[in-house]
Amino acid sequence: MARKRVTPVGAFDRDLVRGALVDAIWKLDPRRQKENPVMLAVEIGGILTTLSFLAALASPGAEPALFSGLVSLWLWLTVYFSNVAESLSEGRGKARAASLRASRTGVAARRLSSASLTAPSEEVPSTALAPGDHVLVRQGDLIPSDGEVVAGAVLVNEAAITGESAPVVRESGGDRSAVTGGTTVLVNEAVVRITAAPGQTFLDRMIAMVEGAERRKTPNELALEVLLFALTGVFVVVVANLYPVSAYSAASSGQGAAVGLTVLVALFVCLAPTTIAALLPAIGIAGMDRLFQRNVVALSGRAIEAAGDVNVLLLDKTGTITLGNRQAVAFVPVNGQAHAALVEASLLASFADETPEGRSIVDLARESGAVGTCPDDAVFVPFSAHTRQSGVDCGGVRYRKGAADTIVHEVTAAGGAVPPDFEAKVHGIAAAGGTPLAVSRDAAILGVVHLKDILKPGIRERFEDLRQIGIRTTMITGDNHLTAAAIAAEAGVDDFLGEAKPDDKLRLIRDRQAEGYMVAMTGDGTNDAPALAQADVAVAMNNGTQPAREAANIIDLDSDPTKLLEIVEIGKQILMTRGALTTFSIANDIAKYFAIIPAALVGIYPALSVLNVMGLATPYSAVLSAVIFNALVIPMLVPLALKGVPFRPIPADRLFLSNLVVYGGSGVIAPFIGIKLIDLLVAGVLHL
């Protein structure tokens, strides 16, 4: 099957960088800069030092004009680099949104007077459609808006939305009825009930989210911003009080002079948490972009954050933990019955069974040498969920295959007896994680077909990785408890819920949340909507029903339930990236104190010269070097902010220690090396 994936957009694509460099200039407008209070404070500092520079040019003062001018320049560059980081991350989202916007085309729609394929229709623009309207779509039509098929069935090409080239069936009355505006009907016709108002379709929401324009800040991000804002306020007060203190000390001791405006501003900028404040917006937006690279759209920034905090995963068994279709693996005859007779009866009873399980029984029987056929007048009984059996009346003989209790009822009603070892063999297969299907011929039970769910490759190892980071996995299945227990043990999940109904799922989520857990789950059907609405992270399949998609806060365009594992990993990666860069930023600031504080106050307090451990040339070169390094470290960390810290499935305490050593250690060492090298250059070239 051909696969068309989302085209990767490099972090430093030429067109993307060019656009970010221009957009970053417009972001210098204080009205736009106010979204980042820390950088707004730096920009105000840049304005003050610029005025100081102009004043020094007009009338030389205590601070050299060259020094004031260079500090001012690098303060403006600090704000500019912060804007570039944010513009780069936003630009990647806008580039991806461009292809989606191209598919959002205004089309004519056939609005019907009722939900009937033969109802009278009128042609209206798609923008005139309202929720509840019914439209007729035919072969070759673009579906005008989001909706649900309420009559008929169509084959739809959703490549413009999902990237998947293979068409999908959308039909009424099931869990595959939802259609998305902008997709194309390939075959047949159907009536679609519109569910979205103009401008509020799934595609509209996708475009808004991937552009990042409407990304809501997450609770952890808001908490960190409050902390940064508080620290900034504290440092403003400290620096503001430093001038009168230094003026008094200089006057009292008769040596030195009060700290100048440029040095005070530089001191504030180097003390404030500018590095993490500059990169924080880019980290969040880039995280949403990484999701979109995997064909996953988060309808809320909070959902991604919650994914990083998830510690309980509820996963459906079929299609998530297992491949989805049970396969026949063995024929198990009961005492007194020949293996060949069971194989032939299973083959004949499965001829009319078009389910994947039925087809696998036919294939296994053929591989076992069965060649049974039926005459033309044979009466086939197709599989039905109501009867739970299939079969054929062939040559006066009645062959049946189905659930064990159903076949037992059939046989006993016909006067037959249940073999003494039948129940043990049924329970043995169920206890091993398989599904037993009984097979009968007239009033005799011949044996059992063993159907087995096949685990997806590597799923057990992924669960082990999740367990390492403190995430508990729970498998949900409609299978009986014996089968569920066996599959759960084979897959390595921590818990399971068998014979699950919609209210059971909802109750399980509420119970886990009441215990203090953050819960994530996947779903695609209408019966999953209540549980999805309750879950902290709700991932709906794009091919699922409209209620499921509306209840979710994350949509998987590939409709792959295992994406939930990747979503959690990306959420963790965002938190790890934010934590790593925050650790680096704090450690980085501590190291800068040794450069700028002695330089600012050594004229008044000569004893502070012992803190000049880097041996910086002069107070002016030390201050300027610290400001330059403070600005340069932002673009140096942009690639890490956009790419993210690699996800590693390790416990939280080990992760904290690793961050402290790697990012904390490098955050302390880097400024000592960087500032010293810059100081050598500044002192040697500018002679400050």
User: β content, as a range?
Assistant: 15-25%
Rg, Å, rounded: 34 Å
Number of helices: 22
Query: Averaged pLDDT, please?
Result: 81
**Beginning-to-end CA distance, first to last residue:** 67 Å
Q: Which outline best applies? A: elongated
Strand tally is 21
Ranges with pLDDT <50 over ≥5 residues?
1-10
Biggest sheet overview = 8 strands, antiparallel
Total domain count:
4
Residues in helix, %? 40-55%
Which structural class should the secondary elements be placed in? alpha+beta
Task: Outline the structure in words.
With 688 residues, the chain is of the alpha+beta class. It folds into 4 domains: 14-95 and 212-292 and 571-685, no CATH class; 108-197, Calcium-transporting ATPase, cytoplasmic transduction domain A (Distorted Sandwich); 296-321 and 456-480 and 492-557, HAD superfamily/HAD-like (Rossmann fold); 327-452, 3-Layer(aba) Sandwich (Calcium-transporting ATPase, cytoplasmic domain N), CATH 3.40.1110. It contains 22 helices and 21 strands. Strands 1, 2, 3, 4, 5, 6, 7 and 8 form an 8-stranded antiparallel sheet that branches. It is elongated, with a radius of gyration of 34 Å. The two termini are 67 Å apart. The relative contact order is 0.11. Mean pLDDT is 81; it is low at 1-10.
